[in-house]
Specification:
mainly alpha
Length: about 100
């Protein structure tokens, strides 16, 4: 998670344009889909969890929302801190209970 936020931070101009501006809707939707898909791949490595499409959408949108908010607040937290925040939210998600 930290490496992902470090990557987003290094390439902040690109991602801020993609996430927070008038970028075409298709690009934002594709990025959001990729975030959700990545979450699904990470979580389904544990065979104890069975996720419905709704749980995957919930978790993907939550992650994307955190990333978007981080950019909209000019990345006020370092990548390592925002990764810890997101990890804490994911671990306490009702989808994982």
């Amino acid at each position: 998670m930290t490496k992902a936020f470090q990557y987003l931070h290094v390439h902040a101009n690109f991602f801020k344009t993609l996430i927070c501006s008038g970028a075409p809707t298709e690009l934002r939707e594709r990025f959001q889909y990729l975030v959700g898909t990545r979450m699904f791949e990470n979580l389904t490595k544990d065979p104890a969890y069975m996720f419905s499409d709704y749980a995957i959408a919930y978790l993907g949108n939550a992650q994307f929302g955190i990333i978007q908010h981080w950019f909209m607040t000019n990345r006020e937290f370092p990548p390592e801190d925002i990764a810890r925040i997101l990890t804490a939210f994911i671990r306490k998600s009702p989808c994982l209970v």
